[in-house]
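Structure tokens please, single chain.
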Amino acid sequence: MSQNTTVFGLLGFAILLAAGAGWGGYRVGYDRAELEARVQLAEKDAQITAAQAAPARTGGGGEEGGGKKEKPVFAPTEYTTDQMVALIPEAASLGGEPQAKALYAFNNIVGSCVPCMDQQYSIGKCIERAPKLLDKSICANLPAISKRLVRLAKEERSPDELRSGLEFSQPWVPLDPARSPSKGKADAPITIIEYSDFQCPYCKKAQPSIKALEEKYGDRLRVVFMNQPLAMHKMARPAAVAAMAADKQGKFWEYHDALFAAEGLDEAKLVTLAKEVGLNVSKWEADRKSTEVDAAIAADVARAEKWKITSTPSFFVNGYKVKGAQPPEFFERIIEAELADRG
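Here you go.
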């Protein structure tokens, strides 16, 4: 069934229900805004399902088939020391071997911010072109990269250590936590944003790592949860709705933990967990049907689509992507670098 067929089918069903309500038949349980939100969510589900079912495209692609876009070949730049200092004033404090290492990194390490990573620009070229971008917020990480380059050079790190410290493993992404559920101080130096699916076994496996990081870093860490219920998991969307309804009573994290601790999810289990965490179940049931809850999940899904976050769990540590259920040490490498850059 096509995406359009799915959406139009839902709209048609809604019209029939509305007509029935007008003639004394079944009453529609949602108002117009709620119905539109649910149709929009169904459309996004159809898009996710279609994307998962589509065969991977390979090869250079012609006029008909398209194909995966190839990254440009990386070409080192040839900035001089004076040019590096002009772009990174802190680099003026370097001399001798540290300066040589910093200049080499400046010209030869691929920028790890969006969109520079896709373009295969050197860090130097990223920093030079940042003021020319129409959307400057997309390069908001460059000051941190600049300070880290100087700091690592002063510490006389090896070229491999410089590369590891500056590139990490994934591009930096400027995510907005928006009004998503969070715990920890809003001004904490480290923010971990998690895109997660309550029915995903790897999301469940990742939770002990996040708990360990919370214990280790305390007030220095803020954790933000973003919903990304995948179409392949039948109870993922209902669980996300249930958790966001629990958030309306200030118990998102209690319900979050209960969902991941559960050995299986179905409608009865969702209700049982609501009682166990002390929710007002009547209010919770009403909030599960609200447009506000659906809209919050739709916004999370839209952000995931914008930044091509296609798998769960996906974490962003101050914007740096950590994919999958990684051990705490994987996160700590980024966290420690970020804390060091902030003095």
